Amino acid sequence: MLTYLRKRILSSALPLVVVIVGVFALARLTGNPATLYLPLNATEQMRADFTARMGLDQPLLVQMADYFGGVLRLDFGESLRTGESAAAMALRAFPATLQLAATTMVLAIILAVIVGCWAALKPNGVADRISSFVSMAAASIPDFWLAIVGIWIFAITLGWLPTSGVNGSEAWVLPIATLLLRPFGVLVQIVRGAMVSALSEPYIKLARSKGAGDVRIVTHHALRNAAAPALTVAGDLTVGLVNGAVVVETIFGWPGIGKLMIDSILQRDFAVLQAAVLLTAVAIFVLNILIDLGYALLDARVRPATVKA
Amino acid sequence: MSTVTAAETTTTDRSLPVVLKVEGLNVDLRTPRGTVRAVDNVGFEARAGQTLALLGESGCGKSMTAKAVAGLLDPIADVDGGEILLNGTDLARLSPKQRRKFAGPELGIVFQDALTALNPVYPVGAQLGEAFRIHHGLSAKEAKAKAVDLMRRVGIPEPEARVNAYPHQFSGGMRQRILIAMAVALNPKLLIADEPTTALDVTVQAQIMALLKSLREESDMAVVLITHDLAVVAEEADTVAVMYAGNVVETGRVADVFASPRHPYTKGLLESVPVNAERGAELNSIPGSPPELHKIPAGCVYQDRCPLVQEVCRAERPKLLPVVSKEPAAADGATPRAAACHFSEELDK
Amino acid sequence: MATPLVQPGHQPPTSDALPEPFAVPPLEPPAAEAAEAGDKKPGLFRLLLRDKFATAAAAVLVLVGLTAVFGPALMGDLATKQNLLFANKPPFNPANGWEYFLGSDSLGRSVLARLVIATRTTVAVALPAVAIALVIGSLWGVWAGYHRGWRETVSMRVADVIMSFPSLLLAVVVLYVFNPSIANIVLILALTRIPIYLRTARAESAELQSRTFVDAARTFGAKPNAIIGRHVVPIVLPTLLTLATLEFCYVMLAESSLSFLGIGIQPPDVSWGLMVSQGRQYLQTAWWLSIFPGLAIVITTIAANMLAAWLRIATDPAQRWRLALPRKRLIARIPAKTVEGDK
After folding, report:
1. Which residues of chain B does CATH 3.40.50.300 include?
2. Which residue of A66, B165, B221, B302 sits 20 to 30 Å from the alpha carbon of A229, by its own alpha carbon?
3. What is the mean pLDDT of residues B40-57?
4. Domain B18-244 adopts which CATH fold?
5. Spatial CB neighbours of B317, under 8 Å, sequence gap ≥ 6
């Protein structure tokens, strides 16, 4: 168990290292990072000052050591916009995204399990057809467009919900509904597929031979077996939720890490972008570890998850 | 046929109560070629304290018959007519909900492959105790105590320690014992054993069959044993129903049927057993293979492989009729014997 | 009755058993049908026409393809022609002429014409991205799965690394550093989707390489690449093509998101996602500017999704029979035959 976890932590750490090195490499790929860090209208003098101040005239190895030292100290330099520490800005934005993502995923999982199980009980039945179309549509609608339609209908036309902001529970409705759709659609299909295959396993027949009813079959016997593939996909979806969060936070003015990233890109604030990207990578690393723990809890055999992408 | 007739058999006593009576059972299977009949007009009886063997090749419908009796047919299969009388109640007419009340207390089933039949994510104790939780409303703790009792009953060593172990931590034979324990947990009147030893080593097979026998004697269960193994039938069963292409072609006491088969298929089967052949002689076999379900001929189902085939066999399907035997054992009329062959009289030696 | 009972290889050690190999396989219709699918399998196209949803989905995709190829030529300079007299016209008003059927923007440009031009850009990004990822990912995966060992381990690790990082984040960083040109967008989208094909192709190929027919080819002295090309790729291909259909949706949505965020397609080029973004500020006054391009995305992705779902079943010999399965009878057949003659 412990060796298993240690192994998983090591393999999950690899992407993290790649990201850290990758950001460094990318920043140097364009030649002089000063062009990256500084605004486009910076003068020659500003560039020269910047290069000297950041130690960019040093050999590459020294730069790399500096960079890694900075990463370990959570020091990514200052924001060009505010002069504030980039790490502090990223850390401040992080909870807002975490709240949004966690609420969305919990809701998506609950809804998907209910709908997926319901559909799986009668493959090709009416419920199955409806849920398969709804989930397909849900996974096909671009989140940014849904957000705009939502604003158009509920905020502009009907005036029920605010167009943006984080104040009050109404403000949560549209962002969560927008963000929810894709993970929900994908998860319904996964839960349904996993449940259909779990329900056709011989152990379900055995449970039926003991007189277990439909509810007991689903909740006690099939769901736990179907949970492993669903968990893998839920993990992937949470990673993908970062994509959605960037879009949703931008549209709804949600002060999270996604909005921070886009703002720093549009204002060419590379230090903040770097901090935000690395913080996200760390969060994903932690998430992967949690998912591995989840497997171990679900199944004594800790079987490798077999899921089609 | 010395080995077969020497096998231990008990007398089939008509006074023993009939636990299961299946009559005219049809099971349809929906396939891309249209609906085919996988089990056709099948009937048999199982009596308390005795073992009835359903014998046949794979695909002959024996397993499907068992699943129909247990109410565990796959969604693509439907019971289409017939009666399944379990102590007088017709299971075929019950709603799924009513039927669940029978599953466990009245009827238990042992599956073929214990590894896939046991739920991999729960300890065996929880799975053994489940029947008590469903039908007797016991708490988890009480059910676990019952599970330990059951494990002891089927001969699993150190049940207290192993009750929390997972299925993959047991050997194949032990897993099969757990399956059997699960089936007999509530002392059902009828136990269906669907090829319970096929997946096991020969030595373990004998242990499992012995366990089944002792459990049967202990609680006077009727056992329906689904098998393709003639030796198992000879050793374990009291009566046998031979199935071919979805039809019962011959029934009767095992000793009688094996001593003088009255259907050419049964005869062919027995002759193809190497033990019965002369050493050095070429082994007999039945030419051809069973018909596919959508190509079952109109007349006798066995016509294409039968050495005795005549015009009448192609025109008319023989009914399963009682046969009269010259042999003294069957002559007293105490044992029902029947065969579905136009020429069953001619097979009588 | 003199022929041997079963082939020697099939004879069980304890020969008291019935000949199991002589089985009718009625319990497993998929297997039974798969075996026979070879003799008279209906063409994929005929099978498609049977399913009206799949047919509709295919028709939509063909329409999108035709629009992307021929549409811009038909529209001429209509998409860029400004006409302030016709600014902000709402849609569905025949009085404005067909070119303004879907309304016009604040500069009086036809939404319909812009939509058609955007179709080409959208398809021109999504198709090459999918194709590049498909070819590289598949070949890499088949190769890794065939050889197993370190080649497999390293490949899977690379896939894990790419997959465990949000694709948009990668795109954001790369497109920040480099120009968001169409070529760069295509490359970055392809790069982030390679692991999908890599994983699938590896799994299938690893399974296949242990099969007897591959062993047989090996004993004849066939070289690995020849075996991969002749025996592995044809079997894996249908799965991968189905996957690619599905991926088309994903890539299209990803490009739309990037364009929407302002780091994808840059004006004066226009894609569906960019149109949604540009129309966003006019939501109160001219809803059609955002809604129509969004609908185009939705309809295209749903169509690709549906076609992929159908393809997945149709190209899988073990599942194909489902498409031809008759529905459950509603009326039970009357028991025709009487019971055995003991009465």
Report:
1. 18-244
2. B165
3. 90
4. Rossmann fold (3.40.50)
5. B298, B299, B300, B301, B340
